[in-house]
Amino acid sequence: MKVFHRGWRPLLVLILLVAIWQLSCWLFEIPKWLLPAPSEIWLEGITGWGNYRSHLVSTVKLSFMGLLIGSGVGIIIAVTLHSLPKLREAFYPIIILTQNIPIIVLAPLLVIWFGFGMLPKIIVITLVCFFPITVAALDGFRHTTAELTHYMKMAGASKKQIFWKVEWPYALPSLFSGLKIAATYSVMGAVISEWLGAKEGIGVFMTLASSSFRTDRVFVAIFLIMILSLIFFALISSLEKIIVKWKPKGEGKN
User: Fold this and answer.
1) Fewer CB within 10 Å, N- or C-terminus of the chain?
2) Is there a domain that residue 150 lies in?
3) pLDDT tens across 227-242, in order?
């Protein structure tokens, strides 16, 4: 969370950008439907709480559920590929290829195959979340200190003991880095999945606002997505501080 406490400069830049935006809307008399002023967006965000409250709750639930499932899938895949090197050589390139398929293109196929229920939405979020977790965890396993592993082998430790006593703790900082990325991706994945035909959610709220030229509501939805991503990121960072009591030498000094 140090990134949020590094001084006043980022806050000053943000305030300056908002001020320029506000003044531009006033001076050039930009139509509200084209680009609303920050004050109008703020007003809509406060007064329109009842319009998007249920949508926000739906997106939070969907994002959290998808993040949990995606994290579990990512960790299981990482542990499996790490334990079976030949399997990793065979499947790791395929995992990378799966990320080259745009989710927005794959999503309609999931609707055709699984309908408009919860399942295709969870699959979309899982596909978005599992990759950074898997890659980060594998990277952490791979960079485990060789001296520690050699010492454990000399002490007669089994592969299972080496994994849980050395490799897994050493990979936790990298794993949490992947979880932070996945946490922000989960909100994006939820919004994309809601575009497929959900009954409620921030994605639905954004679509309805866009079709009715309520640009101020579109910006409200955008800011809600940003805030949710930051909250998820902060929660993972807080969890990391609780679980990871140490870091490999050289980390955490930025």
Assistant:
1) C
2) yes
3) 999 999 999 999 999 9
